[in-house]
Design a protein that fits this description.
heterodimer; A: 115 residues; mainly beta; 4-stranded antiparallel beta sheet; globular; B: 116 residues; 6-stranded mixed beta sheet
Amino acid sequence: DSGVTQTPKHLITATGQRVTLRCSPRSGDLSVYWYQQSLDQGLQFLIQYYNGEERAKGNILERFSAQQFPDLHSELNLSSLELGDSALYFCASSVGGTFGTDTQYFGPGTRLTVL
Amino acid sequence: AQKITQTQPGMFVQEKEAVTLDCTYDTSDPSYGLFWYKQPSSGEMIFLIYQGSYDQQNATEGRYSLNFQKARKSANLVISASQLGDSAMYFCAMREGEDNFNKFYFGSGTKLNVKP
């Protein structure tokens, strides 16, 4: 158990809908990362927040947005869902800040299925 | 160009033998970090080992070591004395830059099967 929690574990929804994925980082970690893992695209970095602020952006679609709240939990919002958005969405957390190993600890993931 | 290349989609190794998983990277930034992660069939991502671009010595963590060849831009993972529980997908990743606020790049992964 990495200490990172993600809810829900599974989500099944229809095209055009909007969903919210939630992540609670490990105690003491200030950075939260979101990743998408799909069969055709592999593991893609989406976005990073550090202490409430967006700090790095990857291949995140405009239909997707994220935020980190004052209590450091984060939410990833996916809207106007398409079949291709079906994937495993990981959240990871790390202490953040200084350069170095800054090990990321991954949550168990949310499996999103868009029908 | 791909930032991280893992050329071995799948590998087999006999239990108790050593195995090397290849990873090459592409960056012009002098500061970067290289990471290896393990993803068992259960799906979670597990951090294994880290190598910084300025580190003089190869990183080691238990049975894992990272063969870092900077000039060749390779960061191969060596697993010694393979165990059945090592069967999993292995991902190489890189972060460029001098702080921890840059994009993370992952390779396509290598599926390792350890045979009894």
